[in-house]
Each structure stands twice: as C-alpha cells, then as structure tokens.
C-alpha cells in the first residue's frame, strides 16, 4: 500500500520502464527508437538551458504532477462504480455501467478538462 502522495512517484518510473520493456518484448523497434530519440531530444533541448540537476528536478517534478493529475481525473469516474463480471451486455451498456459523471463545478470542469462528464466522453 502506497500513500496517495507517493503512488504517482512509483508510477512515473514504472510506466517509463514498462514502455521500454514492452517495446523490446513485442519487437516494436520503431517505437523504441522514437522513444529513445524523443528523450534524447528533450535532454539536448533543456540541459543546456537549465543544467543537468535543474533539468532532472524539472522533469521528474512535472512527471509527478502529470501522474497525480492523471490518476485523479481517470479514477474519479471509474472507482465509485460497482463493476461486475461481464454479463454479456453490449459495449455501450457496459461502459455506461462502469463509469459515472462527477458533479459539475467550475473547478471540476477546469481541472478535468470536462472529463468529469465521463459518460458523454
């Protein structure tokens, strides 16, 4: 069990390593090359401007905030629902049963980018 504040810290490296792992396992060489070149390009762009230490702080802090936001937005529409085993319903009915809308408010609309209307999304 990880406290909610620490969970995104664990997700960032987990997702990074998972992306590399599955690219290699599934022999998606183009995907792997593009991922590696993207990361190299980001480093080449920011390290000269910020220095390596500041870049690492910026990069991992922004990834932490991004992960926290993603977890908050995606899980608030799915966790509260009673999800049961497949009852051979059509796809739309299953999706409607497994998601919910979150109360509309100025903050929720802004923070989630209107993903608080998950059923319509």
SSE topology:
Layout (H helix, E strand, L loop, with lengths): L6 H19 L3 H22 L1 H24 L15 H8 L7 H7 L9
Helix pairs in contact: 1-2, 1-3, 2-3
Protein name: FADS1 desaturase
Organism: Campylorhamphus procurvoides
GO molecular function, one term: oxidoreductase activity, acting on paired donors, with oxidation of a pair of donors resulting in the reduction of molecular oxygen to two molecules of water
Reported for the largest beta sheet, the result is: none
- The number of distinct helices, counting runs of at least 4 residues, comes to 5
Tell me the fraction of residues in β-strands, as a range. Answer: under 5%
Taking pLDDT < 50 over at least 5 consecutive residues as the criterion, the unreliable ranges are none
Q: Give the CA-based shape.
A: extended
Q: What is the radius of gyration computed over CA atoms, rounded to a whole number of angstroms?
A: 19 Å
- What proportion of the residues is helical, as a percent range? 55-70%
- Please, what is the average pLDDT? 80
Tally of structural domains: 2
Q: Termini distance?
A: 31 Å
Class computed from helices, strands and strand pairing: mainly alpha
Transmembrane segments: 6-22, 29-49
Keywords: Fatty acid biosynthesis, Fatty acid metabolism, Lipid biosynthesis, Lipid metabolism, Membrane, Transmembrane, Transmembrane helix
Organism: Campylorhamphus procurvoides
GO molecular function: oxidoreductase activity, acting on paired donors, with oxidation of a pair of donors resulting in the reduction of molecular oxygen to two molecules of water
């Amino acid at each position: 069990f990880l406290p909610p504040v620490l969970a995104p810290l664990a997700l960032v490296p987990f997702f990074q390593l998972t992306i590399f792992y599955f690219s290699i396992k599934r022999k998606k060489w183009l995907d792997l090359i593009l991922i590696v070149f993207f990361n190299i390009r980001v480093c080449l762009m920011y390290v000269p401007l910020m220095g390596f230490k500041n870049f690492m702080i910026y990069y991992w802090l922004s990834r932490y905030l991004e992960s926290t936001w993603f977890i908050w937005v995606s899980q608030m529409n799915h966790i509260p629902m009673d999800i049961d085993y497949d009852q051979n319903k059509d796809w739309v009915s299953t999706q409607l049963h497994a998601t919910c809308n979150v109360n509309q408010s100025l903050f929720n609309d802004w923070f989630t980018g209107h993903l608080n209307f998950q059923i319509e999304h």
